[in-house]
Amino acid sequence: MIARHKGEIPVLILLLPFLLGIGLAVNFPPLQNNHWTMAAFICLSVFFILLNVLYSKIKLYRSNWIGGILIVLVLIFAGTVRVSQHNELNHQGHFSRSPAEYLLVRINSEPVTKNGWTRFTVVVNAARSHQKYKTTNGTLLIVLKDTLPKIGYGDELVIPAKYTPMDPPFVPAEFNYKKYLAHQNIFYQQFLFPGQYRVLVHNTGNPLISYSLQLRKRLVGKLKANMRDTNAVAVASTLILGYKADLSDYIRQAYAKSGTVHILSVSGAHVGVIYLLLMFILAPLNRLKYGKVLRVVVIIMIIWCYAMLTGFSPAVCRAAVMISMVVAGRAYNRYINLLNIMALSAFILLLYNPLYIVDVGFQLSYFAVFGLIAFQPIVYDWLHFKNSWISKFLWMPCSVSIAAQIITFPLSAFYFHQFPVYFLLSNLVITLPMVIIMYSGLFFLLLPQIPFLSKALALVLEHTILLLNRFLIWIEHLPFATVSKIWLHPVEYLLLYAIIVYLFAFSYYKKSWQLITSLACMLLLSISTGIKRTDNYRTTNIAWLNVGKHPAIVFRNTDNAVVLTDLNDIDKTFRYAVQPYLDSCQIANCRIRSLQQDIRLPWMIKKGGLIQFLNQRIFIINSPLSGDEPGPKINAVYLYITANPHVSLNSIGKKFDYQQIIMDGSNSNAYLKKMQAAADSIKTDIKILKRNISLITSSN
After folding, report:
1. In this structure, are residues 389 and 366 in contact, taking their beta carbons and an 8 Å threshold?
2. Sign of the torsion angle spanned by Cα atoms 57, 63, 65, 69
3. Rounded Cα gap, residues 18 and 23, in angstroms
4. Residue 688: in which H helix or E strand, if any?
5. pTM, 2 dp
6. What's the rounded Cα separation, in Å, for the pair 310 and 446?
7. pLDDT tens digits, residue range 136-172?
8. Strands (DSSP E) along 545-659, which ranges?
9. Nearest residue to 157 via CA among 104, 101, 96, 210
């Protein structure tokens, strides 16, 4: 439903400056803790109110633009103020402001155990120092080395106050976990082992959330008791209940590369399926005198109960708010512009938590809905079929998939760096299985255990998921299934959206300036990508990556690279740290070798510990130096020390002429401190990678 005039979508128009204010505050942290933003918001608001009161006296109708500018400024500053208020670090009672020996905390999330570690967040209620308690606030991430801790949501604990700030990404292009957690108001973490904490009292949290988590846990247990395949259980728990803890990376990857990862996030589509079922079941209520009102109340209550069960995720809340408003409006035969409803739901959620704006699921959800409302009718008009069955049951779902994929493509490329080529096929095929999974799963979970019926529903649910998984894995392994290594600069990301929006606007409104704007954005995007590609083909460098206790050196020659490491390409550390860096550099041909292997290439030769890379010489020291007999020194630009060889700077100086020493995290802390002190005393250039960002040295 597209608006012909901006007067049809006032909420959407007013939402834009509010979004701009939030975006400015998120991307420019100084705006979050300055009192002048609050003062500006108050002054502008008061001025706007006075102008409206004195509207007739001062004849403001002659200059309507003044009121428009004022309301835009008020909304921009409202966004920045809301972010500032939401940021826990700005609160005077934040626990980080109070030195303490122990913290009194309450668990405010469901503990999730994976690979022997249990993670959960806590609210810090008090800090104890010198036998005195001080009331505090703030959220802390706890990582507990325990696979079966006897704790849960709402439990109050006493823990030592030994938290540390979150680490930034040490490798270029690595996922910024620190920023991700900061957007959830988590700035500190603490590692605990059994015996380092004490449970004071159980189950003191919000009773509604506690009940929903316990109910979801029981329902997941019911799935596990009645289904054999663990992957099927994990997908069912994710699709129906939003419980992702058991979902394997293998299955997640299959859904991502086939363009169907959106169904793994409980969102509008899932709520829509429940809504359609409720509309069908409750249709007889329309015959009663107050049946319409009763049906609206029942539908809204059930939808919000489902939202509670899934943990009130932003996508589900957005869908619940939208559907609640649509259902209520249609019950009274009101005209409803869905863009207004969408904007209003976003405004409500962002008032509650402005940092939802940086949540990827929130962004994908809203962009997808916007695409379905604004773009799907345009796509549907591209083709016309005389056969109504083809038009309704084939082209209609195709137009929905195309519109959603087009509008979310820049987001997917920006965050996930890939594009699923066969998205249309996979999204068409999954429609029916998803409906079967949702309905069979909901009936199975909500009905009591009934002989034969429960067994039959569980069987249908499991085999439908297995069939869907096999199909998506097949799609994943088709030739050219995904276009990967897409790395967009934020400006390119915005240009891509401008191209899409103005092209669709031109196809609907037929105004030439919209086409010209889109073509201009295409030109700028082409220039930007061309410059980046040219730079890639002219770049040669050495990247000394900090990947914990593993050595990792990337020798890059244009779009070719050699990686010296003890990792292989299926290791988690390689996939999450090294591979993103290689992809961001647009590496087309990569060789992974161990530090012990010799290499002979036109641009790189390695023999033992000695490496000749273009015009630079590197020597790797991973064992004690042999022999102290005098002889000619080895010339090397860089010395790379790994595996804790315990060589001294004195012995190094006797054997090498070098410019810089680089030491990785595999060396012990004591050895690193000793070498740093020795280097400082003789003013030797030394770079220690442990808990520091990676080093990239140019070889051009």
Report:
1. no
2. negative
3. 9
4. strand 686-688
5. 0.88
6. 15
7. 999 999 999 987 788 999 999 999 999 999 999 999 9
8. 552-557, 560-565, 589-593, 599-601, 604-607, 610-613, 616-621, 634-635, 638-641, 656-657
9. 104
